[in-house]
Structures are given as C-alpha cells and as structure tokens.
Amino acid sequence: MKQLILFLSLSAPLYIYAQPSGEALTGRMNSFSVSVGGGTAGGGGAVAFASGVGKGIVTARFLFNDELNLFGDFSRQIWDVGGLYGFASGNHSLFVSGSAGLAITGGVKKGIYIEPPAGSWFGGGYERVSFVTIGIPLQVDGKMRLTGSLGLGASLYANLNPVSSAAGFMIGINIGDIWPAWKK
Q: What is the C-alpha separation between 41 and 167, in angstroms, rounded?
C-alpha cells in the first residue's frame, strides 16, 4: 500500500498534464527505451517497447530491481514482464503517458532467519524465498525530444502484487518514432 501511495503522490502532477486529448494518434508511434534507476526494491533497469494504438498507447516492458546490500547476505529482487495500456498527451518537444496493465512478477524475498551453527559467529542469515505471481504494473512516462528519433525520458513505476510490491523512478534513452502527430 505504501508503494501505491508513493506512486500516486509523485505522479499526480503528470496526470494533470497528461489528460487524454480525445484525439486519435496519427502516423507511426513506435519507440524503444532503455532505463536505469531505483526505488523501494533497490536499483535496477528496464527495457520497453511502446506503440500508439488509436487514442492510447500500448507498452510491453521488462523491469528488474535488485536491492543493494553491502553488509548482509540477503538481497531482495523483483522483476516483471508485462503489458500496459494507457493514455498519451504531448506536443513536438514533450510527451507524457500514463498506463496500467497486467504482468508476470517474480523475484526473491526474505524468508525466516536461520541461526548460525552452534559455536559459530558466522553462517546465519535469511532464507531466500523465490516467488512468481501476477502483478499490476503502473507507469507514468515523461519524454523530451533531443533529435528526430532520440529522446531522454523519466518514468515513475510501480508493481502491485500480493507478495512483494515495488515502486520507483527511472531515467533513460528513447529511440524511435516517439512523438506521434495528433490530429488538429
């Protein structure tokens, strides 16, 4: 629940800007993005492909987070492979989209603490419990055009699931027909 509140509060200003224009996208709108960042489940990265469909945007994404743990033996990991559908708005320099969908989500979470062997100071740690479940991926993207087919982007993301939810922020490079033309 904390992740959902964090995601909604950080992305609220973008929702106001990115209200659907009510106009169909015209021309091609296919882009590929590579992003890095971090959040509640540690640092990570994502690759995504987005395509304009009618008045919306369809995105296929793979996202991975790995918790940085310098002094312990446990590192929480979360990944998702999902499809999202949402709305898009923008002009020739800026583009904002918001979407939600379904994902297969998996990773490793912390299990019970295992005591070290008797007489030993070392060897204890947390059990690593692997999981796979269905999640609800959420994503808000803001993109800025650098050249005709190259842009920089920032994303707020979340994955809500019954086992180990996560939320965070990423920055990345976008390649392709990122900025569709809107009918006037």
A: 7
